[in-house]
Amino acid sequence: MRFRLTPRETSFYDMFAASADNIVTGSKLLMELLGADSSARAEIAERMRAAEHAGDDATHAIFHQLNSSFITPFDREDIYRLASSLDDIMDFMEEAVDLVVLYQVEELPKGVEQQIEVLARAAELTAEAMPNLRTMTNLTEYWIEVNRLENQADQIHRKLLAHLFNGKYDAIEVLKLKQIVDVLEEAADAFEHVANTVETIAVKES
């Protein structure tokens, strides 16, 4: 780790941890959506919307701290990129839940539960990793596993698309369901962006 003669603003670590913990909350709401009937989904969507707003607040707090701090724990552009990528995850998860409600989807296609399970695992790993930014330890396994999960998510997504286009669904239903599974795939990509940013930070700080 690089030796520094100047003090560093350490509240960023806590804010990144809080943002990641909020993503775990979002992933649990996605899991809850799977087992909910259509009458319960609107209420889940409301809670997801509240979680997404909390995520926005956390991101804005990081940006405010970044703009007001003379010394930062690592490069400013990496702080911005990490905060933005964490925010993207929450945005995509909230969008997926909102689309399920808006499109009045009766039944999600088989395979979506696997997508959401991957996201839930990535959320747990990300929440566990954020506190380790303080010491830059025990992070290698994190970004390796998240990249593996993203590859798994890609495979699940491709199988879902093949299922949607097998002729079982009418054209309108295909469009609705494809948008939902595409957004969930974007959430998986955003987890990988977070992991890649953490790897970049760790390499710079080593």
First CA to last CA: what distance?
Answer: 4 Å
Structural class: mainly alpha
Could you tell me the mean pLDDT? 93
Proportion in β-strands: under 5%
Explain what you see.
The longest helix is centred in the last third of the chain and has 35 residues, at 171-205. Helix content is 78%, strand content 0%. The chain contains six helices and no strands. The chain has one domain (12-205): Phosphate transport system protein phou homolog 2, domain 2 (Methane Monooxygenase Hydroxylase, Chain G, domain 1), CATH 1.20.58.220. It is mainly α and 206 residues long.
In short:
InterPro entries: PhoU-like_sf (IPR038078), Put_Phosphate_transp_reg (IPR018445), UPF0111_domain (IPR052912). Belongs to the UPF0111 family. This protein has about 210 residues and is mainly alpha-helical.
Question: Tags for this entry?
Answer:
206 residues, 6 helices, Put_Phosphate_transp_reg, 0% strand, UPF0111_domain, mainly alpha
Task: Explain the layout of strands and helices.
Blueprint: H1 11-34, H2 38-68, H3 76-102, H4 112-129, H5 140-164, H6 171-205
Protein name: Phosphate transport regulator
Organism: Streptomyces melanosporofaciens
InterPro entries: PhoU-like_sf, Put_Phosphate_transp_reg, UPF0111_domain
